[in-house]
Amino acid sequence: MKKILLNTLFKKEIAEFHKTEKELIWKIKNIEKNAEKQIEEVKRNSAIAERIFNLFDDAEIIGIEENKFEKVYVFKKQKGSSLDIFLCSQTYQAINGLPRILTTINYKKRDGIDQKNIKIDDIQTVDIDLGNGSILMKYLIKLAKAQKVSSITGWLSSVDQNHFDRSEHYYEKFEFDVKFNNDRSEGSIKLDIL
Fold this sequence. Notes:
Elements: H1 2-9, H2 11-55, E1 60-66, E2 71-79, E3 82-88, E4 100-110, E5 113-124, H3 132-146, E6 151-156, H4 164-173, E7 177-180, E8 187-192
Parallel strand pairs: 5-6
Antiparallel strand pairs: 1-2, 2-3, 3-4, 4-5, 6-8, 7-8
């Protein structure tokens, strides 16, 4: 009898209460789903960082960027005259499959002043047109400036002659001076930093 009386007298209020209750339950479920997604993202990201340090215990993570496909961790490994920059992500996991720029820092005296130069030994982007090369170069230039390097140089090998046009565009995008020999079979690049 009480139930019938309450449903009759407070029908509108009870319906409103049930509607609000359902909305709150729906919101709580959405919050739980979003929290689960964020937890999974944190787990994936920590797994990437762990993988970096398993590959190179002396690595230093220097940035997180996004190529056209996914988030990538940028890290450097610097030992002696070697300065190497790598990308690691869900896609790029194995040591031989990491996009990278391998360089050597050369020290020399010019006019009695110590100067540092970075020579690019190799660039391996793994995939073309995802932005990996641009991310790597951006960080190389940033590190060169921080380390007061006077220039970044490199050699365009005849082995890469089939994609010199793409290489030329890539380096010029970062304001490198690109020069080829007369038959365009090899060349050099240079970016003055200081």
